[in-house]
């Protein structure tokens, strides 16, 4: 298999952005369909994959700058390895943060939470210190000195309000308190993500419930990356959040910028429980929908080797 490139974890925006085989974009070309592309790049209808050295006749991942060609299977395998590496790195970072958060106490100064130098109320929202948040809010309630819409300046949470910080960290009681004090559930951070999107992506179903109960949300609002709350929950495999969002009226027909539906996103990442929930609500046309590269949810499951998801899709009454 090809060697993986080094990835700066801070630059990873979406789960399917990093392509591990090559440091230039590898465009997907169907040699049996895209005659213009074949003529433009001087490709033939057969090629030797630079990774496995097998002769292939249809789908090629091609870099016109370096004349690199690889087959779809090798591309998927290396991409999956790259994502596993990223997830291990993220998990390691999260475990360090969580350990430091456990050391946080109500008597300690919240401004030094995990070395972030955050304002006390923001640090308390991240740590889940409800008593500290309540004390700060109540102390400043009548003086008007506390701005609940102030934006976090730390790079990891750029542009989030206190509600966005608490929602993304899964702290339901703090979310309830902030909503009761008028914090805006529609506020977006620098990625265009709302508190509902952060809670959905993190799998914090109780927080999702509170935000939906508060009302006033556009449940199908998309972030700057084109993901809705349902697409975030589906791609991360949080079945309970998927169920809540659909019950609240989230559209299952909306797509990511590369044309993936919630079902395709869940299938691509092997999230069987989320796929099962989605199949209960989708029409046959939605189950069989294809993305902009021509792949359906079933194709995605097969290409990644997720047999359980593949079986669900093959035997779905809506298939």
Automatic annotation (TrEMBL):
Transmembrane segments: none annotated. GO terms for molecular function: ubiquitin-protein transferase activity. InterPro entries: Ankyrin_rpt, Ankyrin_rpt-contain_sf. The keyword Repeat applies. ANK repeats lie at residues 158-190, 191-224, 225-257. The keyword Repeat applies. Keywords: ANK repeat, Repeat. Pfam families: Ank_2 (PF12796). Gene3D superfamilies: Ankyrin repeat-containing domain. GO terms for biological process: protein K6-linked ubiquitination. PROSITE patterns: ANK_REP_REGION, ANK_REPEAT. This is Ankyrin repeat protein, putative. It comes from Bodo saltans (Flagellated protozoan). The lineage of its organism: Eukaryota, Discoba, Euglenozoa, Kinetoplastea, Metakinetoplastina.
């Amino acid at each position: 298999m090809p060697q993986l490139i080094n990835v700066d974890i801070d630059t990873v925006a979406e789960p399917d952005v990093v392509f591990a085989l090559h440091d230039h974009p590898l465009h997907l070309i169907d040699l049996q369909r895209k005659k213009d592309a074949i003529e433009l790049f001087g490709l033939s209808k057969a090629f030797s994959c630079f990774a496995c050295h097998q002769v292939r006749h249809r789908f090629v991942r091609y870099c016109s700058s370096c004349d690199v060609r690889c087959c779809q299977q090798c591309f998927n395998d290396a991409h999956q390895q790259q994502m596993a590496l990223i997830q291990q790195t993220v998990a390691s970072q999260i475990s360090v943060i969580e350990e430091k958060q456990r050391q946080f106490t109500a008597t300690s100064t919240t401004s030094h939470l995990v070395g972030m130098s955050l304002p006390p109320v923001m640090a308390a929202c991240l740590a889940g210190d409800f008593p500290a948040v309540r004390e700060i809010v109540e102390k400043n309630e009548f003086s008007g000195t506390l701005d609940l819409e102030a934006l976090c300046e730390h790079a990891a949470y750029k542009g989030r309000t206190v509600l966005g910080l608490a929602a993304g960290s899964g702290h339901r009681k703090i979310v309830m308190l902030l909503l009761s004090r008028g914090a805006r559930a529609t506020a977006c951070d620098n990625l265009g993500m709302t508190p509902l999107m952060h809670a959905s992506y993190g799998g914090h179903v109780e927080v999702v419930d509170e935000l939906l109960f508060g009302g006033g949300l556009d449940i199908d609002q998309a972030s700057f990356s084109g993901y809705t709350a349902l697409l975030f929950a589906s791609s991360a495999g949080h079945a309970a959040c998927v169920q809540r969002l659909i019950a609240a009226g989230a559209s299952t027909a909306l797509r990511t910028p590369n044309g993936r539906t919630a079902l395709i996103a869940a299938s691509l990442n092997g999230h069987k429980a989320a796929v099962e929930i989605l199949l209960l609500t989708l029409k046959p046309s939605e189950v069989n929908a294809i993305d902009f590269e021509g792949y359906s949810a079933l194709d995605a499951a097969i290409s990644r080797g997720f047999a359980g998801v593949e079986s669900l899709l093959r035997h779905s009454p809506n298939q």
